[in-house]
Amino acid sequence: MRVVVTGRAGQLARSMAERGPVRGIEIVPVGRPEIDLSTDVSMVDQFRVLRPDAIVNAAAYTAVDKAESEDAAAHAVNATGAGRVAEAAGQIGVPVIQISTDYVFDGTGKVPYTESDAPAPMSAYGRSKLAGEHLVARVPNHAILRTAWVYSPFGSNFVRTMLRLAADRDVVRVVADQVGSPSSALDLADGVLRVCENLCANPDDRSLRGVFHLAALGEASWADVAEATFDISDRLGGPSARVERITTDAYPTPARRPANSRLDTGKIARVHHVQLQPWREALADCLERLLAEKGKSS
C-alpha cells in the first residue's frame, strides 16, 4: 500500500513517515514546491505520477493568530487547496483523508463535541478549515478527521515549548480555562493509517466515509498538560517548573480559542475500530523519547 501525504515537514506527515513502514505501508511525503496548496494549478498530474492508493492531506496554514490578518492566505491553503487535493484524488480514483481541527467549533458546549454537532468557528483559521471540509466533502470517497492539540517529538508544539521554558525559568504561566483532547501525532499517524487501510479495503462501504473525530482519550486543560509535562520530565531527569494557572483573559491573543475543544471519538472507534491511548500515556511516551534524544545530542 502506498500513501501520499501532503505537508511533509509537519508533525503528522513526519509521524506517518515513521509509523507507515511499521505497518508495511509506503509513505510518500510531498510538499512545496512540487505540491503547493496555495496556488491554483491543477494537482492531478503531480499526484497521478506518484501512484498513490490513498492521499492524506495534512498540509495546512496553521498560524492561528496570524490568520486573523491573513484570512485570504489561510483560506487559499486550508479551503481552496484542500478542495483541489480532494478533486485530484477523485479524478485518479483514490480515497482522500482530510485532516481538520477542533477549531471548527466555538467551544461553548459543555460536553465533548460529536460529529453531528453544528460547527461554528470563531477564528479565521477555524473558518478556513471548515470551508476546506465542505470542499473535500464534494468528493464521495473521503474521510475528514478532526483532531486537537497536536504535539510530537517533531517541529514546534506546546510540549516542546514547555520543556524549553522550563529550562530557563522556575514558573510558567499557562491557561487553565481551555479544555481539550491533547493528541500525540505518532498515535494519530497510526489512526490515520488504519483509516487509509479501511477505505482502500472497502471501496463501497459508505459508513467508512464522512466526518470523524480522532484524538487521544481523556481531557485536560493547557495547564494540566504543562503540569504533566513537568512532572514526567522531572522523573526522567529533564527540566521542570511550577505552573501558574491563568485565565484566557490574562493571555489575550488575536484569534479566539474554544474554551471546550474536547472531541468525542466514539464514532471512529465503532466504525473504523480506531482508539488512541489516553493522553497521559501518550505524553509520557513522547517525553521519554524527547529527553533521550536530547541526552544523546548533549
How would you sum up this structure in a few lines?
The chain has 298 residues and is α/β, with parallel strands linked by helices. The protein is built from nine helices and twelve strands. The longest helix is centred in the first third of the chain and has 22 residues, at 71-92.
Characterise this structure.
This protein has helices at residues 11-19, 44-50, 71-92, 124-136, 158-166, 185-201, 222-235, 266-272, 279-297, and strands at 2-6, 26-30, 54-57, 96-101, 142-147, 150-151, 171-175, 179-180, 183-184, 210-213, 220-221, 242-246. The chain has 298 residues and is an alpha/beta fold. The protein has a single domain (2-297), classed as 3-Layer(aba) Sandwich (Rossmann fold). Strand 3 (54-57), helix 3 (71-92) and strand 4 form a beta-alpha-beta unit. Helix 2 (44-50) packs across helix 3 (71-92) and helix 3 (71-92) packs parallel to helix 4 (124-136).
How does the SSE layout of this entry go?
Blueprint (H helix, E strand, L loop, with lengths): L1 E5 L4 H9 L6 E5 L13 H7 L3 E4 L13 H22 L3 E6 L22 H13 L5 E6 L2 E2 L6 H9 L4 E5 L3 E2 L2 E2 H17 L8 E4 L6 E2 H14 L6 E5 L19 H7 L6 H19 L1
Features of this protein?
globular, two-stranded parallel sheet, 6-stranded parallel beta sheet, Rossmann fold, alpha/beta
Helix content: 25-40%
Strand content: 15-25%
User: Can you name the CATH architecture?
Assistant: 3-Layer(aba) Sandwich
Number of strands: 12
In the CATH hierarchy, what is the class?
A: Alpha Beta
- Measured between the Cα atoms of the first and last residue, the distance is 38 Å
Question: Which H/E pattern describes the elements?
Answer: EHEHEHEHEEHEEEHEEHEHH
Tell me the CATH topology. Answer: Rossmann fold
The description of the largest β-sheet is:
6 strands, parallel
Strand order of the largest sheet: 2-1-3-4-5-10
CATH superfamily: NAD(P)-binding Rossmann-like Domain
The geometry reads as globular
Radius of gyration of CA atoms, rounded to a whole number: 19 Å
Q: What is the tally of helical segments?
A: 9
Number of domains: 1
Mean pLDDT: 96
In terms of structural class, how would the helical and strand content be classed?
Answer: alpha/beta
* Uncertain regions spanning at least 5 consecutive residues: none
